Every structure is written in structure tokens, then in C-alpha cells.
Amino acid sequence: MEHLFKSWQIFLDDFRAAPHILFLSDYDGTLTPIVGRPRDAVLSQEVRDKLSALAQKPVFTVGIISGRSMEELRYMAAIEGIYYAGNHGLEIEGPALEYVSPDAELGQAMIKDLAGQLAAALEHIAGVIIEDKGLSLSVHYRLVSEEEQDAVAVIFKKITSSLVDAGKIKITSGKKVFEVRPPIDWDKGKAVASIRREIISLLKLERVLTVYLGDDTTDEDAFKVLRRPEGWSVYVGRENTSSAADYYLNSTDEVEEFLSRLLELR
């Protein structure tokens, strides 16, 4: 893993050789800093303006892929003319693509019921935030005291284990969050591949250069499908040798600098 700016000339060579660039990014922890309450992760006007300006360049297509619901993601980002993928890619909207996983839709009633069970079981622990996102749900415990975080994990596992064993849900964990998703073969990596195929088909190209930025466990699926010279995978955070990403940026501030550098190019 190398710092992206130290490999800038290599990136420029790939960039200049590409007929089109697909720029995709996670939202929380990548375009915005991690915060205690998901609703407080407000996209700065500077980053919004830069993403919007990038999307208006003919050589770029821009998209945001997030674990948030589509409705919330579109509201939080509020950028026109780009691709959005919510619920880890289970739903995708954009100029040339509209997709919602039919298998995930079938599980919405179960997700709603599970969210209710978890809310009732965890209501006595201060700081727990449960998000029912329709196609998936999240249990955030960043605001929970360290002394009670283990209790959150125990209760969460007790309630979800039977559904996991029955193959009705799958669980992933991230930065102080448990994610519950339907047990289908779909993730951010497949969402990236789907958007890329649509862009290639729409523009009648043989290939595009795909850049993906992310900071958490669910972004690893996207990193794994991108390799030079067709793709650049960029982890946001301190160098992490366990990540599948080839490059890294230290912070959301460096992500903003990366956007500025892209805008200065052709």
C-alpha cells in the first residue's frame, strides 16, 4: 500500500491513457469524517461543490456508494447528475441505471421486525442508534460507553444468531457498527462493476478508469475488483496493510485535496 500522492505520476499516466474516468466513493468516513450520530455526517459545501464540478466534466462520471438508504444518501449528498448506490449497492440510481435487488425487497418485513426486536432489547443502553434502512439495518454503538459496548455485542448476537444460522441474514461489522443485510451475493464490489458496465455500454467504450475511495470493511469488496491500470483502489485512513486497497489517503482532508487535483487536470 502506497500513499496516493507519492504515486501521483503513475496515476497521471493511467489517467491520461484512459478515455473516461469513473470516480466512485463511499460517504461516511471518506467524503465526511466519522461522527457519533449518522445524521450529523453533513457533507461540506466545499466537497459538494468539487464533486458537482467534477461530474460536469465530460471525461468524468461520479458516484457515491454507501451503506445508507438511497433516500437518505440522496438527501445528505444533494448532488445532481451523479450515481447513487444505497444499502451497500442493493439499490442503485443514476443517469443510465436504476436497480433495486428483488431478493432484498422480499426481506423488508423481516428487517423491520428485527429492528423492532433490537430496539426493545437495547433500549436500556444509552447511545445505541438503530437504523432501519428498508433493505438492511445498522446498529451503531459509537456513543455507547466502553463499559457497555460488550453488552451491545452480546445482545445483538443473541437476537440475530438464529437468523444467521438459518441463512436468512448476514452480518458484517464496521467502525462501531453492526450491519445486517439479506444473504444474497451482492456487495459494493458488484455495485461498482454494474455501474462500470453501464458507463462502458452507454459511452460505447472498451474500458474506463475506475477510482474507488472507501474507509471501512464493506469497502473491501470494491477494492478487490479494482487493479491497475483499469482501476485504482484508495483506502481512506492511516496506512492499513490488511486492506485490499493498493493506495491510501490519510484523511477526509486529503480526499478533498485529491478532488482539487482532479479538477485541475484535463
How would you describe what is shown here?
- The protein contains nine helices and 13 strands.
- The chain has 266 residues and is of the alpha/beta class.
- It folds into two domains: 2-101 and 186-264, Rossmann fold (3-Layer(aba) Sandwich), CATH 3.40.50.1000; 112-181, 2-Layer Sandwich (Alpha-Beta Plaits), CATH 3.30.70.
- The strands form two sheets. A nine-stranded mixed beta sheet has the order 1-13-12-11-2-3-4-5-6, with helices on both faces.
- Helix 3 (70-77) links the parallel strand 3 (60-65) and strand 4.
- The longest helix has 20 residues, at 146-165.
- The chain is globular, with a radius of gyration of 19 Å.
- The mean pLDDT is 93.
Average pLDDT, rounded to a whole number, is 93
Our Rg estimate from Cα atoms comes to 19 Å
The number of domains: 2
> So what's the oligomer here?
single chain
Essential attributes:
2 domains; alpha/beta; 9 helices; globular; single chain; Rossmann fold; Alpha-Beta Plaits; 13 strands; 266 residues
Protein topology:
Layout: E1 2-3, H1 8-17, E2 21-25, H2 45-55, E3 60-65, H3 70-77, E4 83-86, E5 91-94, E6 97-100, H4 102-106, H5 108-122, E7 129-132, E8 137-140, H6 146-165, E9 170-174, E10 177-181, H7 188-203, E11 209-214, H8 220-224, E12 231-236, E13 247-249, H9 252-264
Brief summary of the model shown:
α2 (45-55) runs parallel beside α9. With 266 residues, this protein is of the alpha/beta class.
